[in-house]
Amino acid sequence: MAEPRPERLQAGPADASLEPPLQPFGPGRRLAAEALGTALLLAIVIGSGIMGERLAGGNAAIALLGNTLATGAGLVVLISIFGPVSGAHFNPAVTLIFAVRRELSARLALAYVAAQVTGAVLGVFAAHAMFAGPILQISTKLRDGPAQAFSEAVAAFGLVATIRGALRFRPDVTPMAVGLYITSAYWFTASTAFANPAVTLARSLSDTFAGIAPSSAPAFIAAQLAGALAAVAVMGWLLRREA
Amino acid sequence: MAEPRPERLQAGPADASLEPPLQPFGPGRRLAAEALGTALLLAIVIGSGIMGERLAGGNAAIALLGNTLATGAGLVVLISIFGPVSGAHFNPAVTLIFAVRRELSARLALAYVAAQVTGAVLGVFAAHAMFAGPILQISTKLRDGPAQAFSEAVAAFGLVATIRGALRFRPDVTPMAVGLYITSAYWFTASTAFANPAVTLARSLSDTFAGIAPSSAPAFIAAQLAGALAAVAVMGWLLRREA
Amino acid sequence: MAEPRPERLQAGPADASLEPPLQPFGPGRRLAAEALGTALLLAIVIGSGIMGERLAGGNAAIALLGNTLATGAGLVVLISIFGPVSGAHFNPAVTLIFAVRRELSARLALAYVAAQVTGAVLGVFAAHAMFAGPILQISTKLRDGPAQAFSEAVAAFGLVATIRGALRFRPDVTPMAVGLYITSAYWFTASTAFANPAVTLARSLSDTFAGIAPSSAPAFIAAQLAGALAAVAVMGWLLRREA
Amino acid sequence: MAEPRPERLQAGPADASLEPPLQPFGPGRRLAAEALGTALLLAIVIGSGIMGERLAGGNAAIALLGNTLATGAGLVVLISIFGPVSGAHFNPAVTLIFAVRRELSARLALAYVAAQVTGAVLGVFAAHAMFAGPILQISTKLRDGPAQAFSEAVAAFGLVATIRGALRFRPDVTPMAVGLYITSAYWFTASTAFANPAVTLARSLSDTFAGIAPSSAPAFIAAQLAGALAAVAVMGWLLRREA
Q1: How far, in Å, are A121, B70, C123, C143, C220 from residue B73 at the CA level?
Q2: What are the Cα distances from residue C229, in Å, to C96, C110, C200, C233, D7?
Q3: How confident is the model at residue A20 (pLDDT cuts 50, 70, 90)?
Q4: Chain B residue closest in CA terms to A5
C-alpha cells in the first residue's frame, strides 16, 4: 500500500473532489466501462453463489465463503482496471453521490445508472448461461423486515464511508479498500450487503443463492440510498478540515 | 506494499514518534472517528460471528473462518480511512501506549477511551439490530483460566509489536499489518485474540458467538494491558538505534 | 476508482506496449522462466486439488476453497518473481496477444508456447510425485457442453481484460490483479476457469480433482482463444485514448 | 508481469546482494529479532493447528484452511516488522544461503541458527501453554517416505526462489511474497511445506495437528537443504544479467 500523499493531506483543498481526473476518456467509453464492469460484477456475484450452493452440500456458510472470496477479489480487479476510465461506480448510489457533489452532470449520471442496470442484468444472464440454467428467472428468496432494511442501510453507509475515506487519504488503495469492505460486509450484515440498487434489481432476476424476491427489493433500495446519503453527511463533516 | 522509506531507516530519529501527523483534525473530529470506527469494528466482530454461527451448521471452525475474514478485512478498511484523522486506535491499550510516550495528553487519552467504549457498545447494539436479536444482552460464554489469560497477553503483545514495528519501518502498511495480525491471532490464540479492553467490555454485552461472560472480562483486560506494556518494553529496546 | 498515474494517462502513447522492458534477459533465460514458472503453476493447481480432495471428506466446496487459495496466492508470487524476466505469460493465449501486437516475434512466441507446454506437463508430473500417485495419468473427468465452453470464453475474456487494464493503468499491481482474478474466476465460472491452453493440456494428464478428460480439452482451448481475442478487441477500443 | 524498477534493473550490480542494509542494528538486536520472530512463527503454526483441529469436527481440510490463513497472514506481519532488523530469516536454510553468498559471516550465521532453534522451541511451548496442553510433548505423527521428502525439497526450492526473486526485483513486496508462497505451499505439497529445519525440529516437540515424529525429521531437513541449494543454483543462473 502506498503511503498517504502528503500534498493531499496538507495542501489539498479542504473538501477535495472525490473523482480522479477522467478527461482522457469520453462519455461513450465511460458508459461502456460502467456497463461492462457491472456486468462482470454480477456474473461474479451470481456465478459464485451458484457454484457455492452446488458444491457446499447444504452448508450455507461454506457457500458464502466461496461467494465472498470471489466477490471481494473480483471487485478489486474490476475497480483497478475500469476505475481510471469511468470511476468504476458500478452502483447508482455511488453515482448519486458524485451527482450531488456536482462532479457529474445530472444527464451523465442518469446515463451511468442506465448503463449499470443494463450491464447488471446482462451479467446475471451470463451467469445463468455459464451454469446452464434458464436465462430468465425470478427470485423467490424473501429478504423482508426492518432488520434486513437496517442491514442494507448500514452496508451502504459503510461502503460510501470507505469510498470517501479512501479517495481522500489513499486514492491508490481504493480498489483494495472497496474489495475488503464488501468481503467484510457479506458477513457482518444480516442481508449479506447488497449495498447497490442496480445489483439489487439484477439479483431479483436470479432464483439462486444470491437472489432476492422482487417484492423485497424496494425496501432494500430505499435503505441503501438512505445509508449512502447518511454517510455523505457524516463523512463530509468528519473529513472537513478546520479553519 | 511500498518500499521501506530509506530516510526513516537511516536518517530518522532513533526513537521516532509512533503517531503520524494528525494536525488537520481537531479533537472533536478525532473523537468522532474513534467512536465511529470502534462502533463499526464491533458491528463487524459481533455481526460476522452471528452470521457464521447461524450458517455453519454447528461447525465452529467454519463459523470462525467467516468471523476471521470479516474482521481482518474490515480492520484494514477502518484503519485506512480513520487512521489519518485520529490514529485509528479503537483500543484503550493502544491509546495507553501513546499516552505513556506522551504523544497524547492524559486528558485526550481519557476522552479517546471514553469514545472507544461508547462506540463499541453502540456497535454491538447495531449488530443485534441487524440480526433481529434483543438489543440488550449479557454473554454467558465463560472464557476463564490461566491459559485464556496467557492467550490474551500474547495476543496484545503481538498486536502492539505489530503496530510499533509497522509504524517504525513501514507506516503506510500499518492498516494491512494490523488486519493480517488479527486474522492470524484469531486462530493461534486459544482466546481468539480479543486484545482490546473496549472490545472485551462490549463483547460481554452479546450472548452470541463472539461474546464473553462479564465475569471473564476483568482477567482478559488485565492480561491485555500486561501484554501491551511488555511489548512496549521489548520493542522499545529492540528498535532502538545503537549509538 | 483506482488513481490513474498521470504521466501514463496524459503523456504516454495512446496505445502503449503491454510489455514492460525485458532487455536484460536473453531468450534462454526468458524461456527457462516460462518453463519453470508454468511448471510451478501446474504443481500448485494439481497438488492443491489433490490435497483438497483428500482432506475435504467429500465436500467439493471445501476442496475448491483450498485449491483456490493455493492457486491465487501462488500466481501472485510466480508473476512477481518471473515477470521481470519473461513477462510471466505461462499461457499460450497471453503469448498470442503479445504476438498479435507484434511485441513478440512469431518465432519467440512459438518457443514460449513450447516452453509453457513442456513446463506444464513436468509440473503435473511433479505434483503426482509429491502425492505418491502414478506419474502418468489420463483424466476421466468430462467437462463437456456449451455452458462449459461459454464459461471458458468468459474466463479468458476476463483474464485478458485484467492483464490489459492492469498493464495500462497500474503495471505494478499486475501480479496481484491476476492472482485475484483467478481466485474469483475459480468460483464464478462453471468450469473453474482454466483460461489457459497449456494448463488445459497438462490437466488432461491428471486423473485428480483438477483434471479434464482429453476429449473435453479441444472445446476448452477453442473457447479460451475466442474469449482472449474478444477481450483484445473490446479492451483495445475501450482503452484507446480519443484524439 | 510486475513492473521492474528500472534503476535496479538497469543500473544495479548484475548479482546484487540479497540482504537489505541492516547496519543500524547490532548483533544483539539482530539475534533477538530472529529468536522472537521465530518464536512467534511457531506459536502461530502450532497454535492455529490446535485451534483448527479442535473446532473442525474431524474435517482436516477445514482445519488446514485455518492453519494456512493464520500462518500466511502471520508471516507477512513478522517479516514486515523484523525484516529491517535482522532480515527476518527465521529459517536456517535461508541463513545458509546468505552465508554461502558471504553476506553473513559463518560465526553470525551459526548464532542466527541457534537463535532460530531456541526461539522455535519456545514458541511451541507458548502455543501449548495457550491451549492448556502439556508443555513438553513429542509428536507421534509419521511423515515418511520419498514423496514426503520430495515435497519438502520442492517446498524449500520454491521458498528460496520466492525470496531470491522478490529481493532482486521487488524487495518491498518480499513479506507479502513469502506469506503468499507459504499459503500456497501448505496446500500444493503433500507435506504441507515445513520448508524450514528449525521449524521441523520444533514441530517434532508438539503432538498436535502440525507435529512431525522425530524419526521423520532428518529426511525432511535433508530434503529442505537440498531444495534450497538447488534453488540457489537455478535462480543464480536465471537472474544473472548477461554481458
Answers
A1: 29, 5, 33, 35, 35
A2: 9, 18, 18, 6, 34
A3: low
A4: B172
pLDDT digits (tens, 9 = 90+) for C77-93: 999 999 999 999 999 99
All residues at 6 or more sequence positions from B66 whose CB lies less than 8 Å from its CB, including other chains: A61, A64, A65, A68, A187, B48, B51, B52, B55, B56
**ipTM of the complex as predicted:** 0.92
- Give the separation between CA B120 and CA B112, rounded to whole angstroms: 12
DSSP state of A9: I
The C-alpha atoms of residue C171 and residue C180 are separated, in whole angstroms, by 15
Verify whether the Cβ–Cβ distance C130 to D190 is below 8 Å: yes
Grid cell locating A214: 422482487
Chain centroid to Cα D180, Å, comes to 12
pLDDT at C241: 75
Please give the pLDDT value at position C23.
60
> Between the CA of residue A35 and those of A31, A81, A196, C238, D39, what are the distances in Å?
6, 13, 14, 12, 51
CB atoms within 10 A of CB D105: 12
Residue A240 grid cell: 472537513
How distant is the Cα of B28 from the closest Cα of chain D, in angstroms? 32
C76 touches chain D (CB under 8 A): yes
Among residues D158, D151, D172, the alpha carbon closest in space to that of D219 is found at: D151
Residue D72 has pLDDT above 60, yes or no: yes
Chain B positions in Cβ-Cβ contact with residue A184 (cut-off 8 Å)? 44, 48, 69-71, 73-74, 77
Amino acid residing at A87: G
A42-92 confidence digits (pLDDT tens): 999 999 999 999 999 999 999 999 999 999 999 999 999 999 999 999 999
Q: Are C223 and C149 in contact (CB under 8 A)?
A: yes
- Angle (CA) C161 C165 C166, round 5°: 115
B-chain CB neighbours of D88 within 8 Å are none
Residues 85-144 on B with a CB inside 8 Å of D are: none
Dmax over CA atoms of chain A, in Å, equals 60
In this predicted structure, what is the pLDDT of residue C243?
Answer: 56
Q: Which three cell numbers stand for residue A35?
A: 456497463
CB-nearest partner of D62 from B9, B61, B147: B61
Helix (H, G, I), strand (E, B) or coil at C14: coil
Between chains, do C83 and D181 touch, taking CB under 8 Å as contact? Answer: no
Q: Give the Å distances, CA to CA, from D60 to B47, B138, D50, D140.
A: 27, 34, 11, 17
Q: How confident is the model at residue C101 (pLDDT cuts 50, 70, 90)?
A: confident
Q: Which three cell numbers stand for residue B190?
A: 486459544
* Contact yes or no for D19/D87 (Cβ under 8 A): yes
Interchain proximity C60–A55, CB inside 8 Å: yes
Comparing CA positions, the residue from A229, A195, A226, A228 lying closest to residue A212 is A195
C-alpha torsion angle, residues D179, D183, D184, D189 (rounded to 10): 120
D197-213 burial, b for 16+ CB within 10 Å, e for fewer?
Answer: bbbbbbbbbbbbbbbbb
